[in-house]
Specification:
With 314 residues, the protein is an alpha/beta fold. It folds into two domains: 4-46 and 57-115; 119-277, Nucleotidyltransferase, domain 5 (2-Layer Sandwich), CATH 3.30.420. Helices cover 47% and strands 11% of the residues. It contains 15 helices and seven strands. The protein has helices at 4-7, 11-18, 22-46, 63-77, 82-89, 93-111, 133-139, 163-166, 202-209, 211-214, 230-233, 254-267, 269-277, 281-284, 294-309, and strands at 145-154, 167-168, 173-183, 189-192, 196-197, 220-222, 238-240. Strands 1, 2, 3, 4, 5, 6 and 7 form a seven-stranded mixed β-sheet that branches. Helix 3 (22-46) crosses helix 6 and helix 4 packs across helix 6 (93-111). It starts with a helix and ends in a 5-residue tail after the last helix.
Length: 314
């Protein structure tokens, strides 16, 4: 059985199961420990029953706690059943079934807590307010250039009365759509929209998220041809769109084709980051779980992707 004590000596197996190196996994576990203890004590305090003599909060210093964390991370990285995960880490399937819903809400907060905040969040007390654009770029260079695009994932066929709502004419199947905003400098995911049916157009999803109100006015927002008309509707932030041929089938000039190639080189990062997100089989295969949990699991995997990009600091 691949308990954590054995996985320490086999970092490749740990990486293949969780998608994290040994240092990254230990750092993530150290961040999860206080969050887990706080969540368990809050859960026990809300229960209306007589106090117990034995403390029910599990010990986070034992190897069993790291084994439980490994099981939860492995279930996020794969689509394995609880029986298989329990056999690998030496736990019963019922234990993993109870553990996963309690650990999943804490993964995003431990891996990348800034992902859950608004792009224009309020500064903490005692921090000097940013007054100029140059000062903002110096302190937060991620806001200088942002690339936005939507990604789709196939889902199981819904009930007959809702099939038309989820059907994507482009993919010719029922899909889920989520919009990602990625910084072009470091490749980090800045914002994730709510998940909508695949029938919703990319531009309609951009209007729903109100991304123009959350970004600074001088931020360069790079989009693709699917967001045609955004430059007219949103004068700020500075939106960059490739030149699109119209209905009269006009031929693009040489300068317009060169501009489109330059835009494609700048936008290629928005194709690389979703590919890193979809290395997790939960988002790569057909989604077979509850639709209500999809966006939360997508955010967890996005937070883990950002966590893998940051240097490991214990």
């Amino acid at each position: 059985m691949l308990r954590f004590a054995k996985l320490v000596h086999h970092p490749r197996k740990l990486y293949r199961m969780t998608g994290l190196t040994l240092d990254q996994f230990q750092t993530l576990t150290n961040r999860l420990t206080p969050l887990w203890e706080q969540a368990e004590r809050m859960c026990l305090s809300q229960r209306k029953r007589k106090p117990r003599h034995r403390e029910r909060v599990p010990s986070t210093s034992s190897p069993r706690w790291r084994t439980n964390s490994c099981a939860c991370s492995a279930s996020t990285a794969s689509t394995s059943t609880f029986e298989l995960l329990g056999y690998l880490v030496g736990l019963d399937a019922s234990n993993i079934c109870r553990l996963k819903p309690r650990l999943e809400p804490l993964i995003e907060q431990a891996a990348d807590p800034s992902l859950g905040l608004s792009l224009r969040r309020r500064l903490p007390p005692g921090v000097k307010r940013i007054g100029t654009w140059e000062e903002l770029v110096e302190r937060c260079p991620d806001f200088a250039d942002v690339v936005t695009d939507a990604t789709k994932q196939a889902r199981l066929r819904p009930p007959r009365r809702t099939q038309r709502r989820w059907y994507s004419g482009k993919r010719k199947r029922h899909t889920l759509k989520t919009q990602l905003s990625i910084t072009r400098q470091s490749g980090r995911i800045l914002h994730i929209s709510s998940t909508v049916p695949g029938r919703v157009h990319d531009y309609a999803l951009l209007k729903r998220t109100r991304l123009d109100e959350r970004l600074p006015p001088k931020t360069r927002l790079t989009l693709d041809r699917g967001y045609d008309g955004a430059m007219t509707d949103y004068p700020t932030p500075a939106i960059a769109l490739p030149v699109k041929r119209r209905g009269n089938h006009q031929v693009l000039t040489r300068s317009e084709r060169a501009f489109n190639r330059l835009q494609a080189r700048q936008r290629i990062i928005v194709e690389h980051v979703p590919s890193c997100v979809k290395k997790y089989q939960l988002l790569a295969q057909v989604y077979r779980h509850r639709i209500a949990d999809y966006n939360h699991r997508f955010r967890n995997i996005a937070a883990l992707t950002n966590f893998r990009l940051t240097p490991t600091v214990t």
